[in-house]
Amino acid sequence: MKDKNINIYAKISSENNEAVFSGITFADFIECTSIQVENLLLLKSGYFSKKQCHKFELLEGKDDIAKLALENIYHYGDFSFVDYSNPASVRELTGNEIAELLYLAHLLEPLKSPFFDTLQNNYAYLSHDDGWYCKLYCKEQHILNSILLNKLHKSLQSESCDTIPSLSYELTEKVMELSKRGLLIQLNVLSQKSKKVKKTNVASIKLYTVGEVNNMDYLLNNLENLQSQLSFEVQLG
Hints:
Layout: E1 2-13, E2 18-22, H1 26-32, E3 39-44, E4 51-53, E5 56-60, H2 62-69, E6 78-83, H3 87-91, H4 95-107, E7 123-128, E8 133-138, H5 141-158, H6 169-179, E9 183-192, E10 200-209, H7 216-221, E11 230-235
Antiparallel strand pairs: 1-2, 1-9, 2-8, 3-5, 3-6, 4-5, 6-7, 7-8, 9-10, 10-11
């Protein structure tokens, strides 16, 4: 018998098209977003690419991004980027836009807007210690919800030998509702195996409303003080 715990934090603000996540890595983001990312302008990282412009490292094409997703992003510490629609657009950045990009990367918030007309970016991704803290801006607010739900589904799927059906309507609605207030999802997978019974996995999903969290260490070290709002159980097979 073995327990496995997965913790995911989300605070989603529809007013600012902004989300703060913990427990979601860059590789998760690439896999879970429904808006395909094809070009990245790295604002902060330790990654050196084949292309640069205005002293920014550039990644162009799915292959380059897939290669980056295999890197140890956590090792970089700070890791931030914006995407862009057209390779030529980076060369057209103005001095003011470059200054705003640097401000965004340094303070993890936009001077004016996280979205730049020249780049036509869908995202501004600002993270520290990959998987531990990520502030994400997205032009289409509903995508922020879908990333969270897709990550939850992916976590369940990774623990099962069988295909997991879509998340239930009730669970989906509660996750979207509570994430507006600051939500901690605690996913506990219990594996059981005996000589007579094949291995079975059951996932217990607990939802906690925790508000805006700036110290994930403190939150995760004091889980015993939290009282779950709701609990769901999913049979993994």
